[in-house]
Specification:
seven-stranded mixed sheet, six-stranded parallel sheet, 11 helices, 346 residues, single chain, alpha/beta
């Protein structure tokens, strides 16, 4: 076995730049393991990197894929505590471990961080390499498909709501775009924290699905007065926390939903990177805008344990073979989903 099937692109562009091709099977170096990939979920990160990365160049050709579940297939030198056949998932962030942020435990803002599936080949292939220190045992009660649907979205939602926004029991949180992966886990995490959840989405079917996940009140953002509906659902006060992962399209309205002393926590910008901010509303109402970037290793371990216990559950829209990778990108780009799109590879 010298080659494997991989979804790669050699240049940035539209979906047609993604090619299924034979690539060399990678060999693990010191401190690395090789994973036989069973499933890999898609994220907006895959779409964004394919279109053209925001934060510096990436190596080409590249195989993306951050959310991985599979089996250890081979082990490099100096790997301890892992053996072939172990079922694993991944923490995708690789940090320097030495800067002031890493030393303080704030690894998500390490200025030298790299991401598996962005700065090195990821899991949209039959085999991939990963540092052994980034491995996490696959939750025993979840399938590979279910496991792959969790790491990025569950870790990100936890970091946003619990670590950065410090959501408290009894508070009210607004979560827009409930059909997205981070939002669908955000609803569940907020309920676990004891908060009241108001969500928005685009169709009656998605509204019903958001309620099934635990949302207390759901509005259709296609309604002209949906912001007023959110505020009315709080008795006119506004929400304590808004979780915004969409970007410029929703920032202004998310800020409008906030109560005085409210805080908006943000992690994405795929709908646009800039908008006109009315500054007086920030200081007059004492609003806070908080950035959140990914999750720490221990945060991901915690949410995976909650999923293993059945407290959180993966939300999967559909499962596709790797041969339909372009269709998976289309589904994300056209918002034709509720939850995760997972590529089944083995």
């Amino acid at each position: 076995m010298t080659t494997m099937l991989a979804a790669r692109f050699h240049e940035h562009g539209d979906r047609d730049v993604i090619q299924l091709e034979q690539a060399p099977v990678p060999q693990p170096g010191p401190g690395e393991v090789r994973i036989k990939v069973h499933a890999c979920a898609l994220n907006w990160l895959d779409v964004g990197i394919r279109r053209g990365p925001q934060f510096g160049a990436v190596p080409l050709p590249l195989t993306t894929g951050v959310d991985v579940s599979g089996l250890i297939d081979a082990i490099g030198a100096d790997v301890h505590g892992w053996s072939p056949g172990a079922k694993v998932t991944l923490y995708s962030l690789i940090t320097c471990g030495e800067c002031e942020f890493c030393r303080a435990g704030e690894v998500t803002v390490c200025p030298q961080h790299q991401i598996i599936g962005e700065h090195m080949d990821g899991g949209l292939a039959e085999y991939m390499l990963a540092p052994a220190r980034n491995l996490i045992p696959k939750p025993a009660n979840l399938s590979h498909i279910e496991t792959a649907a969790l790491p990025v979205v569950a870790g990100t939602a936890w970091h946003m709501l619990i670590t950065v926004a410090r959501l408290q029991a009894g508070e009210t949180v607004f979560i827009p775009g409930a059909g997205g992966g981070v939002a669908s886990l955000g609803i569940q995490i907020a309920k676990y924290a004891g908060a009241r959840v108001i969500a928005s989405t685009s169709t009656p079917e998605k509204m019903a699905q958001a309620r099934t996940l635990g949302a207390d009140h759901v509005v259709n953002y296609r309604d002209d007065d949906w912001v007023e509906q959110v505020i009315a659902a709080t008795g006119g006060r506004g929400v304590d926390v808004a979780q915004d992962l969409v970007g410029a399209m929703t920032w202004a309205d998310s800020l409008r939903t906030l109560a005085r002393n409210g805080r908006m926590v943000v992690c994405g910008s795929h709908s646009g990177k800039q908008f006109d901010l009315r500054i007086p509303q920030i200081y007059h109402r004492q609003l806070s805008i908080l950035g959140a970037n990914g999750a720490a290793y221990n945060e991901l371990r915690q949410v995976l344990e909650l999923a293993d216990q059945g407290i959180l559950r993966p939300v999967i829209d559909r499962v596709l073979p790797l041969s339909e990778i372009r269709e998976g990108h289309r589904i994300l780009e056209e918002h034709d989903h509720f939850g995760k799109v997972v590529m089944q590879i083995a």
